[in-house]
Design brief:
It is a single chain. The chain is built from nine helices and 21 strands. The chain is an alpha+beta fold. It folds into three domains: about 150 residues, YbaK/aminoacyl-tRNA synthetase-associated domain (YbaK protein); about 50 residues, no CATH class; about 100 residues, Rossmann fold (3-Layer(aba) Sandwich), CATH 3.40.50. The strands form seven sheets. The chain has a five-stranded mixed β-sheet with strand order 5-3-4-6-9, with helices on one face. The protein has a five-stranded mixed β-sheet with strand order 18-17-19-20-21, sandwiched between helices. Strands 2-8-7 form a three-stranded antiparallel β-sheet. β17, α6 and β18 form a beta-alpha-beta unit. The model has no long low-confidence stretch (mean pLDDT about 95).
């Protein structure tokens, strides 16, 4: 989640969902409505000709350790953030398996007169705070309620943040409706360790008053594999990655087209040895395959510079030098190849 206005960024699993609730001036009477064979929030809103924002839906989970039910009520146009629910409950959850024995009416669950057989937990999202004239399940097969007023009809409800932040939503930092949701890769983590490990190691220090204290620990880590994936995400084309020179697995890719040709083999071998001796990191492809296959594989590997040695190029007295990003395409003499490659490596670092 990114705010275009103030620059706020957060993982969607942790970002606070700020909801601007609206309340009608007059609350309608709570009424039962016959809704045969209507189970989803989208279908009920279409049936009642009301927007999703004027509905209250139920999302049901079960706790992993005892299978007790967790019923969460949230505004119909929003989705549950399971990480927030797990953190609030202090235990893992999974989507519920609703059977006749549990007492819940799947598709018709609502906050008024809710009954569940056995232990259960009921949670309410902030999006329902002080709202009225909502539709919801009537806890009765094929019936829904209209005119739900949360303050009047569910006065004991306590509200917390369980919703996913939405595209175009309100920024938790600056309050502007400027949130955009974009894909990202988590390349690092910060771990707040508290005193768990410092206590176990009997680690202490004296504060300014001479009192013994236990230090609070923290650490961070960067994922090398994730970092490489991030580079590929931002530096690629339809044919494969385009590795930056600074982190490329090799700096130069030699393609010896027709390596069965003695002149090609000799020229490519010498180029490879010269580059190696100069400290250049080189991958050398001398397979007996078609040029198209060789070039396709070279694109897929993504080495920044490619030198093609072929019978046609040698007939012209040159090597073909290309960059993986297609910005460089030139012909160089074999005698000047090493100098030119080193120049380009320096420029691309």
């Amino acid at each position: 989640a990114v705010c275009k206005h103030c620059g706020y960024t957060a993982n969607v699993e942790a970002a606070k969902s700020v909801i601007e609730n609206t309340r009608d001036d007059v609350s309608d009477e709570l009424k039962e409505v016959y809704t045969p064979d209507i189970h989803t929030i989208e279908d009920i809103c279409a049936f009642l000709k009301t927007p999703l924002e004027k509905s209250c839906k139920a999302v049901v989970y079960q706790k992993n350790h005892d299978d007790s039910f967790v019923v969460i009520f949230i505004r119909g146009d929003l989705d549950i953030n399971e990480t927030k629910v797990t953190n609030f409950l202090g235990c893992d959850i999974h989507p519920a398996v609703i059977t006749e024995e549990c007492g819940l009416n799947a598709g018709y669950i609502g906050p008024v007169n809710l009954k569940v057989n056995g232990e259960f937990t009921v949670l309410y999202d902030n999006s329902l705070l002080n709202t009225n004239n909502l539709s919801c399940g009537a806890n009765k097969n094929e019936y829904h309620l209209t005119g739900l007023d949360m303050s009047r009809d569910v006065p004991a409800a306590e509200y917390h943040d369980f919703a996913k932040i939405t595209d175009g939503g309100i920024c938790p930092e600056c309050g502007e409706k400027a949130i955009s949701i974009s894909r990202g890769i988590e390349v690092g983590n910060i771990f707040q360790l508290g005193t768990k490990y410092s206590k176990s190691m009997n680690m202490t220090y004296l504060d300014k008053d001479g009192n013994t204290q236990i230090p609070i620990m923290g650490c961070y880590g960067i994922g090398v594999g994730r970092l490489a994936a991030s580079v590929c995400e931002v530096s690629h084309d339809d044919y494969g990655p385009i590795w930056p020179m600074a982190i490329a697995p090799w700096q130069v890719h030699i393609c010896a087209v027709r390596s069965d040709d003695e002149k090609v083999k000799a020229a490519a071998d010498k180029l490879y040895e010269d580059l190696q001796d100069a400290g250049v990191e080189v991958i050398y492809d001398d397979r007996n395959v078609r040029a198209g296959v060789m070039f396709s594989d070279a694109d897929l590997i993504g080495v920044p510079l490619r030198i093609v040695v072929s019978p046609r190029n040698l007939d012209e007295g040159v090597f073909e030098l290309n960059s993986r990003d297609k910005k460089i395409s030139e012909k160089i003499s074999p005698e000047n190849a090493l100098v030119r490659v080193k120049e380009l490596i320096a420029q691309m670092m």
